[in-house]
TrEMBL record:
Domain of life: Bacteria
Species per Swiss-Prot/TrEMBL record: Natranaerovirga hydrolytica
UniProt-recorded name of the protein: Sporulation protein YqfC
A UniProt-annotated Pfam family: YabP
Length: 101
């Protein structure tokens, strides 16, 4: 059973690698072809995030989101999710740091 799981993981990684290489070779947008997150920052007070999977943690100083490729952390003051849909959200507040994990 363990070997089957390892083979599936390896095949998924190989498939992802092929998709990434093809996307780069054809100069295609990663947010469309790979489902990569698109983060648009407007000054220090506004962030739009597209292609997120879920909210992991949320309070007024810290927001952590899960994505297809990992996680995104936002730190700041008075952080607020102004709106969200199934695949995008707008965050406002005094944003001091954005990290990709």
């Amino acid at each position: 059973m363990g070997d089957t799981m390892n083979k599936k993981k390896r095949l998924n990684k190989e498939e992802d690698s092929i998709k990434e290489n093809l996307t780069q070779a054809l100069n295609l947008p990663q947010d469309v072809t790979l489902g990569a997150s698109l983060v648009t920052v407007t000054g220090k007070n506004e962030v739009y995030i597209e292609n997120y999977k879920g909210i992991v943690e949320y309070d007024s100083d810290y927001i952590k989101l899960s994505t297809k490729k990992g996680q995104i952390e936002l730190r700041g003051k008075r952080l607020l999710i102004n709106y969200l849909t199934n695949d995008e959200m707008k965050i406002t507040g005094r944003i001091s740091n954005i990290s990709f994990l």
